[in-house]
Amino acid sequence: MSAQDIADRAGLSVTLVRRLLRISEQGQARNIARTTADAVLGIPVPARREPSAPGLTGSAEASRLLADLARAGWPAPALAQRLGINARTIPEVRDRRARLRLDLALRIRRLHRALISLDPVSQGIRPADAARARAAAARRAAEA
Q1: Which end of the chain is more exposed for a tag (fewer CB within 10 A), N or C?
Q2: Residue 138 located in a structural domain
């Protein structure tokens, strides 16, 4: 948690929290008011099972997974709709974005797991759109 997160959850100023987190030069413990200590120590630690948005991660795996889905015939607008993101984000992540939000990378991984074994046409994608996605993926693979 950042100092700002602790301050927000404890109802304290971020400056006070930063002072508390700073290590003293002499290595001595700081004296703080009991109400401040209770406010800080009473903060529940957030669950770390699946981060919602904090942090960035590399896009190499997400790029590979999106390319796999394109080779399978899944068009970018359909993937974007299922991910709840803008349709331009799919080609950005697939082709050139260096980093992306951690929660988006996790959603792409789950989407890949759910869709890779399914036929896009049987899931409501028009055959022409699936063929166009496959052809574009083949062109990108040939250029690489």
Answers
A1: C
A2: yes
